[in-house]
Amino acid sequence: MGMCLPCLGGAGDDVVPTPDPETRRRQLAEAAEKRQKETTYRGVKNPEAVERKKKKQEEMNKQEMTTSPSGGGGGLKVGSFI
Fold first, then answer.
1. Contacts of residue 41, Cβ cutoff 8 Å, sequence gap at least 6
2. C-alpha 21, offset from chain centre
3. CB-based contact 19:25 (threshold 8 Å)
4. How confident is residue 17, by pLDDT bands cut at 50, 70 and 90?
5. Where is the composition biased (Gly residues) (predicted)?
6. What values do phi and psi take at 57, rounded to 5?
7. Rounded-to-integer distance, Cα 27 and Cα 4, Å
């Protein structure tokens, strides 16, 4: 019976202290971001290429919006053909 007691004496040293709430919150947020990225790129061979293509498309859309006339005509001109 007395053989078990010395083993339990050092058990308190093996316990990992609980991190403070801010650290825990940050770790949970990082883990959630990682899971979200993994599910987003599931089945994609080259996620970096997908990101580049997505950013390029966004830039093209943004550029298209800034260069289009603000008259609301959608870039079409109406005129007479006489």
1. 47, 50
2. 22
3. no
4. confident
5. 70-82
6. -65, -40
7. 37
The CA–CA distances, whole Å, from 8 to 11, 14, 72 equal 5, 11, 78
Give the distance, in angstroms, between the CA of residue 54 and the centroid of all CA atoms in the same chain: 14
Higher pLDDT, 76 or 25: 25
What is the C-alpha separation between 35 and 29, in angstroms, rounded?
10
- Give the pair of three-digit tokens for residue 46: 């080259």
Amino acid letter, residue 61: N
Spatial CA neighbour of 68 closest among 80, 56, 76, 79: 76
Structure tokens at 73: 């005509």
Query: Count of residues for the chain?
Result: 82
Q: Global pTM?
A: 0.39
Instruction: Tell me the two tokens of residue 16.
Output: 């990992």
